[in-house]
Design brief:
The protein has about 150 residues and is an all-alpha fold. The protein contains five helices and no strands. Helix 2 packs antiparallel against helix 3, helix 2 packs antiparallel against helix 5 and helix 3 runs antiparallel to helix 4.
Length: about 150
């Protein structure tokens, strides 16, 4: 069950003008929230993660990375096909996100309790910041182009 905080996170995602991408962003956020629940429980209890929690977190990261790569590919294909002028920078941004996801996945695979807060903070920030600023830029570009 979602907490009020997690429900508010969903309401913070902007509409990027492409229903399929909006749905993908929702799915990515659901995965981030699943990870946040595990990490948040450990932080709230001032404790290390149990082996089962690390395993669950590892599975979430596997799914998150795989889905993000698919979504990023589809989004980039769309941006290229429609002549988005900032497409190369958008690709750089996506590559940096995947690199960070891989970095934190390694920390998860190492059961690195020292990085619980860093993992949590980054996960909560990256998707909203990317969607609400970087992806919203292409939404605005395409909306202006239609005028």
């Amino acid at each position: 069950m979602r907490s009020e905080f997690h429900t508010k996170l969903h309401s913070k995602l902007v509409d990027v003008g492409e229903p399929a991408f909006n749905m993908a962003h929702e799915k990515l956020l659901d995965m981030v929230i699943s990870a946040d629940v595990i990490l948040g429980n450990a932080v709230a209890g001032n404790r290390s993660l149990a082996t089962e929690e690390w395993n669950n977190l590892s599975n979430i990261f596997d799914e998150l990375i795989a889905y993000a790569k698919i979504h990023f590919f589809e989004e980039m294909e769309h941006l290229r096909a429609h002549g988005y002028p900032e497409v190369e920078q958008h690709q750089v941004d996506h590559d940096a996100i995947v690199e960070e996801l891989n970095h934190f996945q390694r920390k998860v695979m190492e059961n690195d309790d020292a990085n619980i807060n860093d993992i949590r903070k980054w996960l909560l920030a990256w998707l909203l910041n990317h969607v609400n600023y970087k992806d919203f830029s292409y939404a605005q570009y395409f909306a202006d182009k239609k005028k």
